[in-house]
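In the previous chapter we treated chains in isolation. Here, by contrast, the input contains two separate entities that must be folded as one system, with a combined length of 225 residues.
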Amino acid sequence: QQPVQSPQAVILREGEDAVINCSSSKALYSVHWYRQKHGEAPIFLMILLKGGEQKGHDKISASFNEKKQQSSLYLTASQLSYSGTYFCGTNKRSNDYKLSFGAGTTVTVRA
Amino acid sequence: EPEVTQTPSHQVTQMGQEVILRCVPISNHLYFYWYRQILGQKVEFLVSFYNNEISEKSEIFDDQFSVERPDGSNFTLKIRSTKLEDSAMYFCASLLGGLGTEAFFGQGTRLTVV
């Protein structure tokens, strides 16, 4: 079952913040975040595991609320390079690496 | 940095023809996947492959599709009798397996069926 992402799209000015949410109706083992530029492969950002800590990379961080079965990706002080479509991928078991992807959130950062 | 390589980058084929999409996963990885992305839509799981056999497939992956790992390095997706609706970007992914493992995606093959 695919996770649900929100919002579908967001437009930011450089330096502004945004939050992207990913939720599932089923219990999750892990959440994977990817960013995809138009016509390119999804690029891995980070994994959040059940029982794990909040992760961060530069000014992009994420959290995972296991009880609510949802994850949030935080874009802080956004840069032009943050533009793209962000996908969350989820899996339900530690030994099942197949990812179910959300529909994506398109982020446009303008100067 | 190791990477997943896919060929060709773009394939145009006539409806009804067979195509083979090729992938070279990262050499020590154990789990292999094909995903599909129709233009403007989300990435969809097609099939997973482990220990030389299919471990899971989606409802999209019907008898028209098959996968092989013929020589221990290449991982291929064959689509028989292509249809217009098979036009999409096809991504291969591989991962090592284990706690916190990440999937590495290839650059994709854009398949256009005319």
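The mean pLDDT of chain A is 89. The interface with chain B takes residues 2, 30, 32, 34, 40-44, 47, 49, 52, 87, 89, 94, 97-104 of chain A (CB under 8 Å). Compare these points with the single-chain example from earlier in the chapter.
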